[in-house]
Amino acid sequence: MSFGYGDGGGGPTKDMLENQRRLEKGIPGCPKTHMTTSRQFFENLEQDVKGQKYLPSWVGELYLEYHRGTYTSMARNKKYNRKSEFLFENAECFGMLNRILTNSSYPKKTIDESWEVILRNQFHDILPGSSIKEVYEDSRNEYEKITKTGKELVDLALDEVTKQIAGTKNTLAVFNPNSVSGEGLVTVKLPEGMKNPGVTDGENRLPVQITEDGTLLVGVSGVPSKGYRTFVLTEDNGNVAETTLTADVKRLENQYLRVVLNEKGQISSIYDKIMEREVLPDQKCANVLMTYEDRPHNYDAWDVNNYYVEKSWEITDVASMELVENGPVRATVCVKRKYLDSVICQYISLNFDSPEILIRNEIDWKEKNIFMKSIIPVDVHTDEAVFDIQYGNVKRKTHYNTMWDYARFEVCMHKWLDVSEGDYGVSVLNDCKYGCHVHNGEIGISMLKSAVYPNPDADKEHHSFAFSIYPHKGDWKEAGTPKRAYLLNNPMTARIKETDEGSLPGAFSLVKTDSDNVIIEVVKEERNGDDMIIRFYETANQRTTGQMIFGTEILGVWECSMLEEEEQEIPFIDAAVSYTIKPYEIKTWKIKLK
After folding, report:
1. Is the pTM here over 0.70, yes or no?
2. Does residue 304 contact residue 449 with C-beta atoms inside 8 Å?
3. Domains along the chain?
4. What's the pLDDT at 9?
């Protein structure tokens, strides 16, 4: 056994050392011990088991049947963590984009220092939400500081690149930080004096909408991987591109979906117009807000016990329902609820060209010992679900056949989960949640868990987060669920050129792949030099041969370890590099640029 004080790396105490000395001499009925190092233990173990062909092995997830509440406790820190990870991946990517296109310096020192803060706050009591109140006061200050720093780095890089793009003043440049082709909505502050904006992609007029705060909302597509694309922004004199989006206070509809709300603000119907089927089971509603008494046996912030469902309350009181947006680009219904001392506002949106129902939550939470979920039942026949994890995904059974199955009444996910039958499925995407359950066709997204120990004020604050419901043809692979999850978590951003100067092309991709199941996660400068590092992974359990295509001339490519140690040189032709990747494999490459 390993020993020491606590679980935070404390060394042995004098009492532990004295106990070991006595056991070493031999006490009747007790094992005789010998003090050594962990390295020596594992070396001895390796010798002891060498050649034994019947050693037990384990395939798949090591699900720990404990501390399930840590997926949800202290929602603020979990949101900061998710957003910070993407923010500094973007700072790295756009820093390289700026360095390559404008010859600006890469802010390596600042980025590295900020990653240290992010990683430190992933310590096993800080991120899980099981620390004392003072820890979260410190972590809030640290997260807010690096968030400010990261946004400044991204803004600087994008502003410098935008200045150098060819085009006239008021050209709209849209930047895509993801490795998938960018599509969706972007917002931008209008140039002073522009009253009736219009946007085209050079050939087609794009739908636009002015939001309540006066910013321009525009639907774009075809923005290259890890790069940008420009659009033409002009005074349009009121000529607006038409869409099929229609709405009233209890109905949202586009060419993909018809969404109906009931008097409780719940979704009573999701009709898939393409597949001609109802998504919800008979007599069931989606986005049903359920609260549960949350009093675990021992560890308040750490645990969710299986009896939590025995004492539950459905939130049905609605203070107001209002159609707050009704344009050609996006329609939104705001449902406001009062619950005990808390206020819950949900903005349920449908975009003109998307089969996703977006639910943005603004919650002023004042409760304690209450666990809240959004319940989404789906009419999909399956006994398993797929959950996003870092650099891949994992399947779990959704029935309670065995005690091991039953133990998974609360599980973790990252950006998405999916349930699918043979030719149809439903994904639920989120932008900062980690806890959930899927059981017998019911999906539950864990929203808040307000423990009182060790932090008596845990989660008693304002919360802002989003999740979406995405019905789709085929399974999650065919539907491109990971792509949509990246676009929700790491949306595109837009800039408007302020001058007529510049010589950079109207579209540029730093790096892209021709395989939809391969995700480029990282593009950055190497740790101990100025070469470019890319890290990519396979996400669909498929052996894949493809090409990585770079937007600039390259002089050399090496496959590396994750520590960026060169292992093998890779041939290339011009700016294209062929690769073969195994199912769920992670690859790291070092690229020498001209």
Report:
1. yes
2. yes
3. 14-49 (no CATH), 68-164 (1.20.1270.50), 246-474 (2.70.98.30), 510-593 (2.60.40.2220)
4. 72
